[in-house]
């Protein structure tokens, strides 16, 4: 029982991380039909920004205060938002209506940022400073669950609620939802959809940056490989959930996180294979994913 | 069909140039020339031949990806799987099963044919982004399996060194690098020959038509699925051949070739060179590999080391430089290197062939 | 930008705003789609009042013409609206000049409610004309909270028109509003358009000649990417031979083309 609880909570925590990366990807794809390969780079920059700040704020034992930690998360969020916005304005916008070129340019940006991080901070993992409580253990139903899992679950839930509220109740949310269905018609109502493009890139970048910092907490370190590793997982989540669907991504993240943890435990180390198979099966049965838009 | 005047002599001149280039490349191991720091050593030194061989292998591999992506319009994120399948199958056959060279080759060719047939048959039920993702999924599965090291067959993270005990002696030892170089050169010639032949055939024209407008091909009464499967199997099979040549050249397989990043680097090579042009992909693959290998060495040179940090750090990362060049190409030179030489996917030829296809279907 | 649209707060039924004789000039417009040359030099004028019907057989490029005017499909040639060139403008700027667009197949946002579909069309600084659209289409008012995707075809058409009318427009482009509707709904749609056209000039793509007969003052006929006939609607519809050659139907019966 305690094993199941531990696996489930760890799986949900991982799902939270996947969701944070995937939600931005899915919004960008839904609106712009661009699979953003630079998303891993956004994440990486967020993670390293938080780490840089944390290295300034931490004490000798490698701990930071709660306020310092909050500052680190905000720095990650801001770094992601800035790089996301710049990407859209400088690289994506000049390639308007050339969606394939847009995808390729994000591939290039991913390479460049990955190489830059490697060049500046090296390939070794850097220990990620965090408040002591994140390293603690919570006893729940007989299981010893690392507290960082709850942090991830909490942040992911918060983001999910905020995103849904944004999409439901704000004008830009309305534009994004409509644009996911048919962005030509949105401009045919006299709306400059390109502003919404910048917005989703900023938002997606911010969420990716935040997940970079949270990944640092979850894994205890940041390394240049983090970006591409989580990017592939997020792709899988986005595609299973249906490109463009936030709730789809949330559900798919949950399925993927849980499947991965349980498969890893009960069939030693088969977790990655299991989620890849899940992806293949979902795509072959429903090529648009679980909750994919019909266009 | 009447040819424009002047086509005949130009084609002849082209063939002569090609023959001269191939002969020169064949002669490289005998040419003891200085390379002015472009290559690690004198032209025919083992280190230089190894690098040139690597450039040739990846040039050939890029051509196979171009066949799939530039020519048929199939964006696969799993091409690395078939290259890796070639390399790993051969390595396992020779090292774990202790098969002789020909037996290992036969086994690998069998796998190289069957694996893409099965995976292609499944993946091609989807199209577009879903196809890209299914192929990515299969390739990831391959990467995971290689990483898990089942039965100690793949060597996991460390990779698998090739055991040469049952292989021909000319493949062994630094002194014999020239034979490996020739194998790579032969690979390029064979792959290029097959690609030119097949893309000039009726099948190749249908592939281009599928890329340009799949629906139209369907309307003409042809089944795109079958043609796409043939393209997928052909490109993957040739990629597996490249994998074998690479394995022999490098002397072992490592999990780096199974990753999605590796497939992305193929995409970069093809787009850098000019998608759909065949020569462009070859040039892109060669250039990418050369820069990837040599920029690292150049970065260690005093000239770079004396630069200020803000320049030195990025410039010492080959992927940084390549990524920047790649983005600039996409933004300002979408046709890639090939477009610098006035080579584009030829529009009139395409239209002629669509018209031809229409007639063929009508006759039936 | 939106100043032009705001400058003519046309209300229905209402105060006739002085309109220039020719509101929209379309000159030598070419467009290519997927490698095919669809529009091959389209020339026509839309007068500043009444309904101008754009007719033609299926696939001649009527929809493409409307989309080319709006900059949804890339085009060459010149389009002048109310004396101002629209060339090179992004679609949303063309719309903000004061053009309302009712696309073929409605294109309402299926996942959004009726209210949200309309709210999306609201513009900053322009009072939305909810009273007007709910007066025209009372059915919509009752269904505000319903998802647009669950509306019937006729209701979706109403919503699509309402969306275009929410802001004051000086020209409406309406693409096959009767497509796929039952005869009774066609009648309702035509009645609504007739009311609208009292006040706003309309460029109407339509296959239903009965509807054209009721609404249109002028007709433009397309064939193979060009305008091949332009003139008064009554004359055209009365000429059975002409309708037969250009549209392949006889207008005499008033049957659907
Ligand atoms: N995206 C596209 N790619 C290629 N061809 C297209 C595309 N869109 C339209 N076409 C072609 O352009 C031609 C004109 O299409 P259009 O929709 O303008 O016709 P239409 O006159 O509105 O026809 P209908 O009365 O059936 O609505 C058609 O032959 C159509 O097949
Ligand atoms: Mg139409």
Please provide a written account of the structure.
The complex is a heterotrimer of chains A (295), B (364) and C (257). Chain A is mainly alpha-helical. Chain A has helices at residues 2-32, 39-57, 66-92, 99-121, 147-169, 171-187, 193-219, 226-241, 246-266, 271-285; strands spanning 126-127, 137-140, 143-146, 221-222. Chain A is 74% helix and 4% strand. A two-stranded antiparallel sheet of chain A has the order 1-4. The mean pLDDT of chain A is 90. With 364 residues, chain B is mainly α. Chain B is 71% helix and 1% strand. Chain B has helices at residues 7-27, 46-71, 79-95, 101-123, 128-148, 177-200, 202-212, 214-219, 224-250, 260-273, 279-299, 302-305, 309-315, 318-332, 336-340, 347-363; strands at 160-161, 252-253. Chain C has 257 residues and is of the alpha/beta class. Chain C is 34% helix and 26% strand. The chains are: A mainly alpha (295), B mainly alpha (364), C alpha/beta (257). Chains in contact: A-B, A-C. At the A-C interface, helix 6 of A face helix 3 and helix 4 of C. The structure holds adenosine-5'-triphosphate and magnesium ion (MG). Magnesium ion binds next to helix 2 of chain C.
How many domains of chain A? The number is 1
Helix content of chain A: over 70%
User: Can you count the helices of chain A?
Assistant: 10
Q: From the 3D coordinates, which CATH architecture of chain A would you assign?
A: Orthogonal Bundle
Bound molecules: adenosine-5'-triphosphate, magnesium ion
Which blocks of ≥5 consecutive residues of chain B have pLDDT under 50? 345-364
Helix-strand pattern of chain B: HHHHHEHHHHEHHHHHHH
Q: What overall geometry of chain B do the principal axes of the alpha carbons give?
A: globular
- Give the averaged pLDDT of chain A, no decimals: 90
Determine the mean pLDDT of chain B.
Answer: 85
Number of strands of chain B: 2
């Amino acid at each position: 029982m305690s094993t199941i609880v531990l696996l489930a909570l760890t799986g949900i925590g991982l799902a939270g991380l996947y969701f944070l990366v995937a939600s931005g990807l899915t919004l960008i794809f839904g609106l712009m039909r661009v699979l953003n390969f630079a998303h891993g780079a956004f994440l990486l920059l967020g993670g390293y920004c938080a780490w840089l700040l944390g290295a300034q704020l931490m004490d000798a034992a490698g701990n930071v205060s709660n306020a310092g930690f909050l500052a680190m998360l905000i720095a990650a969020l801001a770094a992601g938002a800035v790089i996301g916005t710049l990407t859209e304005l400088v690289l994506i916008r000049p390639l308007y209506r050339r969606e394939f070129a847009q995808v390729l340019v994000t591939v290039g940006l991913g390479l460049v940022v990955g190489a830059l991080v490697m060049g500046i901070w090296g390939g070794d993992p850097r220990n990620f400073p965090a408040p002591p409580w994140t390293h603690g253990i919570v006893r729940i139903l007989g299981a010893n669950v690392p507290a960082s899992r709850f942090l991830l679950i909490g942040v992911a839930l918060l983001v999910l609620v905020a995103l849904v509220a944004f999409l439901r109740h704000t004008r830009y949310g309305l534009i994004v939802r409509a644009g996911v269905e048919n962005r030509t018609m949105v401009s045919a109502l006299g709306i400059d959809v390109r502003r919404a493009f910048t917005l989703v890139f900023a938002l997606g970048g911010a969420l990716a940056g935040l997940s970079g910092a949270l990944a640092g907490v979850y894994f205890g370190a940041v390394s240049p490989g983090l970006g591409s590793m989580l990017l592939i997982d997020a792709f899988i989540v986005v595609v299973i959930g249906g490109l463009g669907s936030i709730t789809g991504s949330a559900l798919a993240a949950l399925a993927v996180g849980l499947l991965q943890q349980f498969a890893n435990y009960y069939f030693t180390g088969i977790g990655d294979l299991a989620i890849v198979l899940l992806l293949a099966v979902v795509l072959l049965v429903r090529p648009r994913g679980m909750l994919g838009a019909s266009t | 069909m009447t040819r424009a005047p002047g086509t005949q002599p130009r084609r002849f001149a082209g063939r002569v140039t090609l023959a001269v280039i191939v002969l020169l490349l064949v002669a490289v191991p005998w040419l003891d020339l200085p390379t002015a720091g472009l290559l690690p050593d004198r032209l025919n030194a083992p280190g230089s031949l190894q690098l040139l061989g690597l450039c040739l292998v990846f040039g050939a591999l890029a051509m196979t990806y171009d066949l799939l992506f530039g020519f048929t319009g199939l964006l696969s994120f799993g091409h690395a799987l078939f290259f890796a399948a070639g390399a790993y199958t051969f390595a396992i056959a020779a090292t774990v099963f202790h098969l002789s060279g020909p037996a290992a080759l036969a086994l690998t060719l069998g796998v190289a044919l069957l694996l893409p047939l099965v995976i292609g048959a499944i993946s091609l039920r989807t199209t577009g982004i879903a196809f890209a993702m299914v192929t990515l999924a299969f390739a990831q599965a391959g990467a995971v399996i290689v990483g898990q090291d089942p039965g100690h067959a793949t060597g996991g993270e460390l990779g698998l060194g090739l055991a040469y005990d049952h292989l021909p002696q000319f493949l062994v030892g630094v002194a014999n690098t020239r034979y490996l170089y020739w194998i790579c050169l032969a690979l390029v010639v064979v792959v290029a020959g097959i690609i030119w032949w097949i893309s000039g055939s009726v099948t190749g024209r249908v592939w281009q038509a599928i890329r340009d407008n799949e629906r139209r091909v369907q309307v003409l009464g042809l089944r795109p699925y079958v043609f796409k499967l043939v393209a997928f199997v052909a490109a993957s099979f040739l990629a597996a051949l490249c994998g074998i040549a690479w394995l022999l050249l490098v002397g072992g397989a490592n999990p780096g070739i199974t990753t999605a990043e590796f497939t992305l680097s193929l995409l970069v090579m093809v787009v850098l060179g000019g998608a759909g042009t065949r020569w462009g992909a070859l040039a892109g693959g060669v250039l990418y590999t050369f820069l990837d290998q040599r920029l690292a060495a150049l970065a260690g040179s005093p000239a770079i080391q004396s630069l200020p940090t803000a320049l030195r750090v990025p410039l010492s990362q080959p992927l940084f430089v390549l990524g920047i060049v790649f983005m600039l190409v996409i933004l300002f030179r979408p046709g890639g290197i090939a477009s610098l030489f006035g080579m584009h996917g030829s529009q009139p030829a395409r239209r002629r062939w669509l018209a031809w296809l229409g007639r063929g279907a009508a006759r039936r | 930008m939106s100043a032009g649209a705001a400058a003519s707060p046309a209300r229905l039924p209402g105060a006739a705003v002085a309109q220039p004789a020719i509101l929209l000039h379309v000159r030598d417009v070419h467009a290519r789609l997927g490698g095919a040359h669809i529009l091959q030099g389209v020339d026509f004028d839309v007068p500043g009042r009444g309904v101008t019907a754009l007719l033609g057989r299926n696939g001649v490029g009527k929809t493409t013409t409307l989309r080319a005017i709006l900059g949804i499909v890339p085009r060459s040639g010149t389009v002048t609206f109310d004396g101002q060139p629209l060339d090179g403008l992004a679609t949303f700027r063309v719309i903000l000049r004061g053009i309302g667009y009712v696309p073929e197949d409605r294109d309402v946002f299926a996942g959004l409610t009726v209210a949200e579909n309309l709210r999306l069309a609201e513009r900053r600084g322009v009072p939305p004309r909810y009273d007007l659209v709910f007066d025209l289409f009372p059915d919509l008012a009752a269904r505000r909270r319903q998802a647009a995707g669950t509306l019937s075809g006729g209701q979706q058409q109403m919503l699509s028109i309402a969306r275009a009318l929410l802001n004051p427009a000086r020209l409406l482009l309406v693409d096959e509003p009767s497509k796929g509707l039952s005869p009774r709904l066609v009648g309702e749609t035509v009645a609504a358009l007739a009311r609208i056209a009292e006040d706003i000039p309309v460029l109407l793509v339509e296959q239903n000649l009965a509807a054209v007969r009721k609404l249109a003052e002028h007709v433009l006929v397309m064939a193979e990417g060009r305008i091949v006939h332009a003139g008064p609607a009554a004359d055209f519809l009365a000429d059975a031979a002409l309708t037969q050659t250009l549209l392949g139907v006889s207008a005499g019966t008033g049957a659907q083309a």
